[in-house]
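HUMAN: Mind sharing a backbone?

ASSISTANT:
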Amino acid sequence: MITVLVPLLQASCPPQGGGYGGSVELRMPDQEAEELGGAGLLRSALRAAARQLAWKVETYAWVGTQHGTMVGVVDRRDVPSRFAKAVRDDMALRARAAVNRVGRPGAPAQHASAPAEADPHMPTAAFRTAYEQAQRSAASSGDSSRSHSNAPGRGDGVRQDGGV
């Protein structure tokens, strides 16, 4: 699962951002999350993938929301000055897009021109596809070590990890 997540995390970093400022959120039905090992396992996999990229991570996981299970990771490293503008501009662009998706009070909601799955910060469909391909590949090669754990786990709230 971690090898599937690393490229998704890399793709979430802004262009010209030097690999800083990335974040990913996976949203899926609660049952699907449980089939993948639970919110706790998904959260751990995101944390481990982020650490492979040397991110200082903040993770979160919520089960039973209106969107089902939501699990995410955010890069909280200090951004070097040469990449700061690109990261700030990307954050501002994402904030504007989020406001447009939700709409302003009293105004009709505006819809983003691209579907949500095109957003590198919410790559749930890309995750599903890559994970299924990895599972099929592992099954055909007889590598059972690549299968996921079915250990129950439920995440809650936010956790900040200072590790590298």
